[in-house]
Each structure stands twice: as structure tokens, then as C-alpha cells.
Amino acid sequence: MRALEVSALFDDLSGVALVERERPSPQPGEVLVRVRAASLNYPDLLMTQGKYQFKPELPFVSGLEMAGEIVEAGPDSGFAVGDRVMGGAKTGAFADYVALPAKSLRAVPEGLDFGQAAAMGAAYHTAYVALVELGGLEAGQSVLVHGASGGVGLAACDLAKALGARVIAATHREDKIEPLERIVQPEAVILNTGRFREQVAKLTDGRLCDLVYDPVGGDVFDESTRCVTFGGKLLVIGFVSGRIPEIAVNIPLMKGFSVVGARAGEYARRFPDRAQRIAAEVDRLASAGAITPHIDRTLPLEDWRKAFEAMQRGEIIGKVVLEP
Q1: Beta strand 166-171 with 188-191: parallel, antiparallel or unpaired?
Q2: Residue 70 and which of 32, 146, 239, 308 are 20 to 30 A apart at CA?
């Protein structure tokens, strides 16, 4: 089978290549899936550079999540040959076939195609854990979403709107304002460069935001501490800006807000029952048409470099899907 293999760690993707590998054989507790679509996530890019917290042993097959059809399944797996499934692990999705633990997969929700299913998992799970489980999101609240054009940011906008929140989408690029207005249809789209607190204050009649969703870090985090209302929460998702910010604890003390880390994968590992409930609720919302993953582009697996380079350049709005 073909697989996108990472054999060395370099910033320019020179350690990545599409190669021929033996088709994997499922181990006890695993099923074999014919991959029909796999979505690119920012950690996929970071892992090719050795910059992600999880550092798999080289060589490894890239790809966090996918959707496809079961081709081999044991009698106790809960699946049958031909079942449409979605999910994944930390590696292996960018290939013709992948062997995965049956417990890491679930049925594709009614009404979703393989591309949408592949694009939904990690981004919407992250958004739900952060906004609902840890943020306590309620209808009518104001939510400021940074990195709104990225996979996890766009998912957060989509989910927050579906749950009745007022969404302010934030981006650092002027050329993404119009697409975000069209795709997300939020209360507003703002530039989160420099001092953006006054824009947020004006849009919320001075109340500021109940929740700030921040996968960016750096200067965006620093200014976001001025955008959270008393009793609100600043949700830390990641640091795509490259700088991990610091905060003097007197700031949340005096302003009366909480800084909450939202590491969705670890949350699922610690609370597997809650993770199943979250997945079921996300699937229900998707089947009902309340949320819809936005796919920026779909490319054949052999064009993997175009996908990774587009992510490096920050061109993508939503997700890129690779089809083997």
C-alpha cells in the first residue's frame, strides 16, 4: 500500500515521502480500515518537524484522523466488514489502509460523507471540550474565537453558534475577513493584531467576552487578558504563534477571570465515559445539520506536499482533506 512516511525531521518536509509499505495486519482489538479520506491537522505538520509534544519513533506514517470502510474486523470488535467509520490515532491515517484499535473508531454520522467525517473528529472534540466541558458555554454568551480560520478555530465558531452563543471570529489576516464573514456568519470578524480590546468592548457594549478561545498564544493571549469579562474564562488551546505566553497571577485575580487549559486528547484519556458522550453529542449535532465541517480543499494523497505547504503558509480556511 501507499503511505506518507516521515523518516527524518526537517522544517522543509524533506524527511517526508510517499512510499510503498506492507499493508498492516490488525492485532487483537484492532480493525483494518480502507482509508477513503484523511484530514490534515496542525499537529501533523509539527510532527514532521519534531516540534509536537508527541514524538513518535522514526519512521512513522503521518496522519491523525481519517474516515473509511472496515475491511477486516474481529467478532468482538463491534464492527462488521463494510461499516463506514471515522476516527484515528496519533499516526497512520495518510495511507491506503490503517490498522486501528476498534475503540478509537465510531460510525460515520448520518448525512456526512467521508471527507466531512474525516474533518470533524479532533477539531470538534477540542471545541466541545474547551467550550462546553471546561468553559460551561451557555446560549446568549459572547465568545471570542482566535485562529478562526484554522481547523479548531472554525470548529469552535461553528459549535458555539450552534449552541446559541454570540461569536466574534478573530484572524490576523485581512484577506481572511471576507471568507470568514461568509462561512461563519458571526456577529463580527476582527483583526487580532495589536490592541483589539476596544473592538471587542464595542461589539459587546462594554461587557467583554464570557469565553475567549485561544489556539494562538503569544501577543494574542496577552491582549486577550483584557477581553475577558468578570467571571469569564480564557481557554488555552495551543500556541501556533510560536511563543508560549506568561501571565502574572494578579491579572486574573484583579479582573476576576480564569485561565483554563484545554488539552482535549488528555481529557478523553482521563474521562473515557465523558469522551463517548461528547462524541455522541457532536455526531447528533452533525446529523441534525447544526454543525458542518468546512473543507477548504480536497487533494489526492500524492499531492500531500501541496496540503502541508498550504498549511505552513496559513492559506487554509477550515480543513484540507487528502484522498488515497
Answers
A1: parallel
A2: 308
Looking only at the bridges linking them, the beta strands covering 188-191 and 209-214 are unpaired
Cell of 222: 496577552
Q: Is the pLDDT of residue 53 over 90?
A: no
Q: What is the 3-state secondary structure (H, E, C) of 133-158?
A: HHCCCCCCCEEEECCCCCHHHHHHHH
Other Cβ atoms closer than 10 A to 110: 10
Pick the CATH number of 2-108+294-323 from 2.50.20.10, 3.90.950.10, 3.90.180.10, 3.40.50.970: 3.90.180.10
- Give the model confidence (pLDDT) of 271-295 as tens digits: 999 999 999 999 999 999 999 999 9
Per the structure block, which three cell numbers stand in for 306? 501541496
Fold of 123-265: Quinone Oxidoreductase; Chain A, domain 1 (3.90.180)
Query: Is the pLDDT reported for residue 61 higher than 90?
Result: yes
197-249 tens-digit pLDDT: 999 999 999 999 999 999 999 999 999 999 999 999 999 999 988 899 999 99
Which residue type sits at 128? Y
pLDDT at 35 over 90: yes
